[in-house]
Amino acid sequence: xxxxxxxxxxxxxYAAQRRDRFIHVYVGATRGIxxxxxxxxxxxxxxxxxxxxGRSSASFAMQKEALEKLNPSNRIExxxxxxxxxxxxxxxxxxxxxxxxxxxxxxxxxxYLPIAGPSCKxxxxxxxxxxxxxxxxxxxxxxxxxxxxxxxxxxxxxxxLLRLSANPKxxxxxxxxxxxxxxxxxxxxxxxxxxxxxxxxxxxxxxISLRQxxxxxxxxxxxxxxxxxxxxxxxxxxxxxxxxxxLWIIMLAIxxxxxxVLPILFGIPVGECGERQAYHLTSDKFGSGFWRxxxxxxxxxxxNAAMDKYSEDGWPQKIWNHTVEVWEKAKSKx
Length: 334
Description:
Elements: H1 4-16, E1 23-27, H2 32-44, E2 49-54, H3 57-70, E3 75-80, H4 86-97, E4 105-108, H5 142-162, E5 169-173, H6 195-216, E6 221-225, E7 230-231, H7 246-266, E8 268-269, H8 270-282, E9 289-293, H9 305-309, H10 315-332
Helix pairs in contact: 1-8, 2-8, 4-5, 5-6, 6-10
């Protein structure tokens, strides 16, 4: 275990070196773990540019002002886009590519646990698993987009700029080590949606895809990290869907209470989690290649059944082909 004092010493040493003139891209940084990670990175980097992607510049205004006061040497630009759509991701990446000559750090922690059911964002009521994918205007369930497809699209779009960095790093904060056996005939969970299945599919496809990318992008550091149980307000969505039974509404209330209380009692503070993510991005411990990192900031060296299975029999390519197919379907609906 890398204790928090070692984390803080490492971050302090990095800050003391006055590293400067980096280009950062942050997604999922307006609340919770992402906001804490952004704040720490902003403190220890100088004369750098931070692009933050999110839905509302007005909601980010106070956070932006606080960051600017924290370190006036940096510049921060908020890009108001819908990250749960490929159209929004592409627009943000196009904007960045039109200005910058490289990207040094890409951080992603967007998403949540849709325990109450598939997210309903554009007026489409999701009452059955068959309707699970019909959520965003591009026809996909929001959380699956945020947890996997949009993140991979960001990496894919920004790879040309990442390659031009001296030490490019990509950090996807999700659930490294939580990979699980998937429904092999329904990778996108269009007919078999469940929040537990979603976590297995998103985490497994994330790890397999990042490891596959690392085989060809030898210069880039790809990190899939598990933040642990964190005392944050950005964990899950518990509002019952229309038509939910009274029993399910009561159960959701209990689950919400557990998700609120247990992290406070047994989890780590969100600020400490942010310090750890900044450490993952800046520490020399994580060099080029693919890393699965646990909540204690240690590499996960032990494999599991899912990582073993989906590393063979052409599965990395199957997962990549599926990912590209989802992107193409989304683009066709714009």
